[in-house]
Amino acid sequence: MTLAVQELRFAYTRGAEELFEGLSHTFARGAVTALTGPSGRGKSTLLYVLGLMLTPTVGAVLLDGADVSALPDADRAGLRARRLGFVFQDSALDPTRTVLDAVIEPALYAGARLAPARERGRALLADLGLGHRADHRPGEISGGQGQRVAVARALMGDPDVILADEPTGNLDRENAGTVLAALRASAAERTVVIATHDPFVMEQADHVLAL
After folding, report:
1. Residue 81 class from Cβ within 10 Å (0-12 exposed, 13-18 middle, 19+ buried)?
2. In angstroms, rounded to a whole number, what is the distance separating the alpha carbons of residues 118 and 121?
3. Whole-number Cα distances in Å, 201 to 93, 94, 152, 160, 193
4. Which strand ranges, in their side-by-side order, compose the sheet holding 66-67?
5. Which secondary structure element, helix H or strand E, spans residue 161, and what is its range?
């Protein structure tokens, strides 16, 4: 699947400063692209546009050459559920639910059956070295483990695209390396885009797009 933007511009309100200056870019499949740039240049905003949570003011988000950014809300929500995975700086895990429940939530939202979803969720956690934490709650795991849980959750629906917003921002170098390695491994079969200001992430990325 090909992810691209064409002549992209975005402003949060009419008359506000526009971001992206007519950006056109194709994000490489099978690779990690780091989005970089000073604060305020729109790194996180671009992820939300790519993730179909914000609609461009001008231009388009293209999946396999089709403009999906102007689709009705229900259609965009369906694409997010089936084809896009998200990892954020705060792993945003519900403290009242188990790690496994957090991981399988996207699959259940997309209509998967519970038993197969739980089996896949446990397998993903095991792959990320967290099989022994599946039945724990977020308060019982470290921040680095929480981010690995977030990666497992993003991979749960086997998406075509992973979008990660500062996923190493709150982590020490060892945990950042573990999370980045998991994202790099996932890129073998999909497109991974990471918004970051971390030089370590930029050095490890296959491509860097400066905004």
Report:
1. middle
2. 5
3. 23, 27, 19, 21, 11
4. 19-27, 3-10, 58-63, 66-67
5. strand 161-165
Q: Which residues fall within 8 angstroms of residue 186, CB to CB, at 6 or more apart?
A: 151, 154, 155, 162, 192
Task: Give the 3-state DSSP-derived string for 36-48, with helices as H, strands as E and coil as C.
Answer: ECCCCCCHHHHHH
Q: Which residue has the tokens 């179909």?
A: 52
Sequence letter at residue 56: P
Q: How many CB atoms lie within 10 A of CB 132?
A: 9
Q: What is the DSSP string of 162-204?
A: EEEESTTTTS-HHHHHHHHHHHHHHGGGSEEEEE---HHHHHH
Residue with tokens 């680095």: 144
Per-residue pLDDT of the chain (211 residues; tens, 9 = 90+): 789 999 999 999 887 889 999 999 999 999 999 999 988 889 999 999 999 999 999 999 999 999 999 899 999 998 998 899 999 877 778 888 999 999 999 888 888 899 999 999 999 999 888 999 999 998 899 888 988 899 999 999 889 999 999 888 888 888 888 888 889 888 888 999 999 999 999 999 999 999 9
Residue 177 makes CB contacts below 8 A (sequence gap 6+) with 200
Decide: 204 and 52 in contact? Cβ < 8 Å: no
